[in-house]
Design a protein that fits this description.
249 residues, single chain, eight-stranded mixed beta sheet, alpha/beta, Rossmann fold
């Protein structure tokens, strides 16, 4: 059974970069299989990981919608879609990547979410860890892309807007009855500590703080993947120290 980590947060807080660093740290363990899921329609997790995404769930559905004759005789459409999505999983060095993408056809976004939910439920037994980089904001939760998670990791900056978004994300998971075992708040790009009242108001347990890291900023500016980040990076080292809190019961 997989350990599922769902990463969420307001856009601009470093959510995808944090997801990529978590994948890198889990990959270092060499004792587990990892599936990275880019559930954000903007689909830039692959880029941050240094992978050229060749196929997405959205493009699979578009292709089948435009070419219904591609469904083999004797195979249902749903079974063919499942097969094509399985084929869209890209193997990388130490992990696999499945990208949601954004369909071009009208009215099929919710269907993509449904396909993603179904495929994750079937892949759970095949991987030690599934890490889901969710859409910035709340849309992915309102559509229940993520129905259950061992850890919900909400990434925020230290701003009132970011913390308010973290609080809303936590509240919405409870309202939608999403089964979450551990709810954590990670404050990114901050070298101090927040007042305990601001943390407790979010309803999330504080995982810790990640410092501002110029190496990460440089990689972002030059378009280089997080996998080439120096092993002594301040943010990476701090996240390494927080790892057991994030991915262990």
């Amino acid at each position: 059974m997989s350990y599922i980590i769902a990463v969420a947060g307001k856009g601009g807080t470093g959510k995808t970069t944090t997801t990529a660093m978590l994948i890198r740290l889990l990959k270092e363990r060499k004792d587990c299989s990892i599936l990275a899921v880019d559930a954000d329609p903007n689909s830039n997790l692959g880029e941050v990981l240094g992978i050229e995404v060749k196929n997405t769930i959205g493009s699979v559905l578009d292709n089948i919608s435009c070419n219904p004759e591609s469904v083999p005789a004797g195979m249902t459409k749903d079974r063919f879609i499942e097969y094509q999505v399985q084929s869209a999983i890209q193997e990388a060095d130490g992990f696999d990547l499945l990208t949601m993408g954004k369909p071009e056809g009208p009215g099929c976004y919710c269907y993509v979410n449904n396909v993603l939910r179904n495929i994750i439920s079937k892949l759970i037994k095949d991987y030690s860890y599934i890490i889901i980089d969710n859409e910035a904001g709340l849309e992915h939760l309102s559509r229940r892309t993520t129905r259950a998670a061992d850890t919900l990791l909400v990434v925020s900056d230290a701003t009132p807007v970011g913390l308010k978004a973290a609080k809303r994300i936590n509240a919405l998971t409870k309202e939608l009855k999403i089964d979450v075992k551990k709810r954590l708040l990670l404050i990114n790009r901050f070298n101090k500590e927040l007042e305990s009242e601001k943390i407790s108001d979010s309803g999330l347990e504080l995982a810790g703080y990640l410092p501002q890291d110029e190496e990460i900023s440089e990689l972002s500016l030059t378009g280089k993947p997080i996998m080439v980040l120096n092993n002594s990076s301040k943010a990476l080292e701090k996240l390494r120290q927080l790892g057991d809190k994030i991915w262990l019961n």
